[in-house]
Design a protein that fits this description.
Blueprint: E1 2-7, H1 11-22, E2 27-31, H2 56-70, E3 73-76, E4 79-84, E5 89-93, E6 97-105, E7 109-111, E8 127-128, H3 131-134, E9 142-146, H4 150-160, E10 165-169, H5 179-186, E11 191-194, E12 197-203, E13 210-215, E14 221-224, E15 228-231, E16 235-237, E17 267-269, H6 281-302
Parallel strand pairs: 1-2, 1-6, 2-3, 6-17, 8-15, 9-10, 9-15, 10-11
Antiparallel strand pairs: 4-5, 5-6, 7-16, 12-13, 13-14
């Protein structure tokens, strides 16, 4: 029996493991793939307070090693089922079944890809899913933002402060994002809307040098000479497993506020898989700490 079972070994999950272990609680972290989450594929992290520059792999490895040294148990086992029983939560994997007094969901969310050839290969070489993380690398350059929601408009506004030119490529002629944000972008001289258009091909050998787009109404193709392509067409939370355990919103995110408490007592959530506006390394780490301390308080009060 563990005090806390943490599902997910990304920044939020490992941060939770560190705080839980340092609080004297037994913590088990279960992860289906490899520790680190999405950040492990990021070549350079330059926006984490106190660390001027570090690779995503090194950042994740530091969290993993620290969690282990604090006493957390980390197992690479994908979770198949989670049930609430009278006095504990039962978590099943292909290899074993574990019991925990409390549960922290930290499964994260995956970026929805464009689905283009070589997209995965070019991540970190011009393809990015986070303007806040990587925008500064494209200072003075031309970039494209793909999407039509609030995230795409916010990313374009952010990038317009750094980049020479920002193209916003959207498959429709109307945006889902806030009209006020769109009007501000239209007023900027270095922002161009590329409407009724979809991404067709990533151009470039070692790094991105362009993006081919096609107008869905006319069939006309155009090449945008850009060094960066920022994909902002949404994320997919990994929460299907918990739909009968806690409340999810219409997009599949676990409903929780800054206290990281879910609709079920004893279940907490941390990181990108919960309802929140800002999804960054810092907020994931913060969630991990908050969720872990809340879980510790719950365990102390019940057991």
């Amino acid at each position: 029996m563990y005090d806390i079972i943490i599902i997910g070994a990304g920044t939020a999950g490992l941060s939770a493991a560190i705080y839980a272990s340092r609080a004297g609680k037994t913590a088990l972290v279960l992860e289906s793939k490899a520790y680190g989450g999405q950040i492990i594929n990021t070549p350079d992290v330059e926006n984490y307070p106190g660390i001027k520059n570090i690779s995503g792999f090194d950042f994740a490895t530091g969290l993993y090693e620290q969690a282990k040294e604090c006493g957390a148990v980390v197992k690479i086992q994908g979770v198949l089922d989670v049930k609430k029983e009278a006095s504990c939560f039962v978590v099943s994997t292909k290899r074993n079944t574990y019991e925990g007094r409390s549960l922290i969901i930290a499964t994260g969310a995956s970026n929805r890809p464009l689905g283009l050839e070589r997209e995965k290969e070019m991540i970190g070489k011009g393809i990015s899913y986070c303007a806040t993380c990587d925008g500064a690398f494209f200072k003075g350059k031309d970039v494209a933002v793909i999407g039509g929601g609030n995230t795409a408009l916010e990313d374009a506004g952010f990038l317009s402060n750094y980049c020479n030119k920002v193209y916003i490529v959207h498959r429709r002629d109307a945006f889902r994002g806030e009209p006020s944000s769109l009007e501000r972008l239209k007023a900027k001289e270095n922002v161009e809307l590329v409407l009724d258009s979809v991404s067709e091909k990533i151009i470039g050998d070692e790094t991105v040098s362009g993006l081919e787009v096609k107008n869905v109404k006319t069939g006309e193709k155009r090449i945008l000479d850009v060094s960066g392509i920022f994909v902002a067409i949404g994320q997919v939370p990994q929460n299907e497993l918990f739909k009968d355990l806690v409340t999810l919103d219409s997009s599949g995110y676990v409903v929780a506020g800054e206290d990281c408490r879910t609709s079920m007592d004893g279940v907490f959530v941390a990181g990108d898989c919960r309802t929140k506006k800002v999804r960054q390394l810092t907020t994931a780490a913060s969630d991990g700490a908050v969720a872990a301390l809340a879980a510790c308080e719950y365990v102390d009060s019940i057991f």
